[in-house]
């Protein structure tokens, strides 16, 4: 059977052989009773590796982000967040439905928020007409594939500290950000009170994300996870591949970044394709078609080459590399797109 090259996302990865073996042999308990030893080990190692006091295993990144909002905020609070963030675009309005908060969105420069603008938007609820700012949410790496500079995160953190407002980091791909910046991940996570990162994106675990923060924050979030139906039982079979994702997979992310950069360079040379090469920070290639294309023919051509991809939206198309896309696969992808545009 021909190899399928799935470029839709880094969520499509299959667990590695080592992960499958770890799942089969996992020691389990009952996580609702807090006695699943594999989950406990994952939470402890995640907290240590990312520089926080405690961690909580959750099924998805969206649940992790929404638990953070639910835990930090009171109903009627306001959450400051970028207008192009995952929380705004791809989390189904959950902040309003679950936490009863409103999102106060700021214009973002390709994912980067301005600390001074955040400072001007913070409200303390002293006026009876105003909501209180309960949380600031930032994202790194951003879901557009760009990495936010540490200096920007530090500036936002300093504003938040001065105003006594917590900061939550949507760090779904925080290890990608660390790889791009060539820093220990704790250099990033020092500038937030809580964070979420995904085990099931570029780290290749089959399921799961981690929510991290203080011991008091995580204790509160654990109860709210139960309230939302997220209580887990023999979750060690999922935490076992998560341990491999946490400990073994971050070191190889730079390979995905290099493949994305190489792919971007080759695609940018094709007439009719435009790519901002300076924006390829992690494992995502965003390309724009500069002339009219037949989308049906494009997708059929990719399918015939055994390539899965999401179709263009408003002229833009995203291709994502991961551990199952090798450097040897890049020529197949480039050839298929050349054919589609010929």
From TrEMBL:
Its cofactor is pyridoxal 5'-phosphate. Its EC number is 4.1.2.48. The keyword Ubl conjugation does not apply. GO terms for molecular function: lyase activity. Residues 6-288 form the Aromatic amino acid beta-eliminating lyase/threonine aldolase domain. InterPro entries: ArAA_b-elim_lyase/Thr_aldolase, Low_specificity_L-TA-like, PyrdxlP-dep_Trfase, PyrdxlP-dep_Trfase_major, PyrdxlP-dep_Trfase_small. Keywords: Lyase, Pyridoxal phosphate. It comes from the Bacteria. Homotetramer. Belongs to the threonine aldolase family. This is Low-specificity L-threonine aldolase. It comes from Deefgea chitinilytica.
